[in-house]
Amino acid sequence: MRRTPDAAYDEIFAVRSYTSEILKGSRQVPRHKDISLAVGWLSCLLGIAACDAGDHAAAHIWCADAERRSQEARHPELAGWAVLTRSMIAFYQGQPRQSVLLASKGREATAMGTAVHAKLAAQEMRAAAMAGDVSHTETARRYATKALVRLAPGSRETGAFSITPAEEPPYTATSLLLLGQFQESVSATNRVLQTHYQYEARKRGEQPSGYARALLILGLAHAGSGNLDEAVSAGHAALAGKRPAWPTLALAGKLDRALERDFANAQQAEEYRVRYLEASHRLQLLAPTGE
Question: Are 70 and 265 in contact, with CB atoms under 8 Å apart?
C-alpha cells in the first residue's frame, strides 16, 4: 500500500529517533561512524518526504543534516542525494538558476558511475531548460547520457536512491517541453510511460509519484500542441491517486494555468480545474504561485 507523504515522514522520523538514541550510546569509533551515516541517510529520506508533503523548511533542515553527516563520514553520495532534493525544490518553486547551481555543485562533488551523479546531471539539464538556456541544456543532456552509460553494474533501479537505466536521461521529456518542443516531448513521455512507469504501476498495484508527474508532463505537452482532450485526459489520470505529492501538485497547477490560458471557457478545462482544486485541498496546501 502506498504511503502518503505525511505518513511516510512520521514512520521515517520514528526510525531516525530510535537510531539517534543508539548513536548516543555508541562509544566505539567505527560503530559510531556507521550509525551516524545511517542517521544521515534517514535524514535524507526525511528531506524527500518533507518535500513531497510541501514542507520545504523542514526539507532543507533535514538535507543540511544529511550533508553534514556526509562530510563527517567522507561519503559524498549521501550529500549528493540531499543536494538533489534541494535542487528539485528550487526547480518546482520556479527558481531554475538556483536549481542549476545546486545540481552542478552536487554533480561535481560525486563520482561518475554512481546513480546520484547521473541523476544530478539530468536535473541540471532540466533546470537549464527551465531557464531557457538551450546551449547548457544540450551540454547537460550529452553529459547525462554519458553518465547513464557509465553507471556501475548493480546500480539500484528502484527506491528513493535509484535511477532506471534508459536510452535517454531522466527528465528529457520535461526538458523538451520547457524548450517548447511539444511533439518531441509527447513522444519522449510516451516512451517513458510505456517502458517504465506503467509496468511499475502494474507490478506494485499502485500509482508511483513519478508516474503521475510523467502523465502531467504529457498533459502539458499535449496542451502546448493544442490537443485539449488529450491534455485533460492525462491530467485526470495523474490526479487519480488519493494524495498527490507536492511536486505532482505543482505540475498539476501548471497544467491548470496552461488550460486556462489556451482553452478559456472550455468545459473540459473547467472540469479539470475542479479535480485539481480537490487534490489541492487533499494535500492541505494550495500549489505555490509562479511554479
Answer: no
Q: What is the DSSP letter of 190?
A: H
Q: Which three cell numbers stand for residue 205?
A: 498495484
Q: How far apart are CA 39 and CA 46, in angstroms?
A: 10
Residue that is written with C-alpha cell 531522466 in the block: 170
Q: Which helix (H) or strand (E) holds 37?
A: helix 29-53
Q: Is 113 exposed, middle or buried (0-12, 13-18, 19+ CB in 10 A)?
A: middle
Distance CA 186, CA 183 (A): 5
Helix residue ranges per DSSP H, 93-133: 96-109, 115-130
Q: Please state the pTM of the whole predicted model.
A: 0.89
How far is it between the farthest Cα atoms of the chain?
68
The answer to whether residues 141 and 172 touch, using CB atoms and an 8 Å cutoff, is yes
Residue 282's nearest CA partner among 46, 1, 53 is: 53
pLDDT tens digit sequence for 90-144: 999 999 999 999 999 999 999 999 999 999 999 999 999 999 999 999 999 999 9
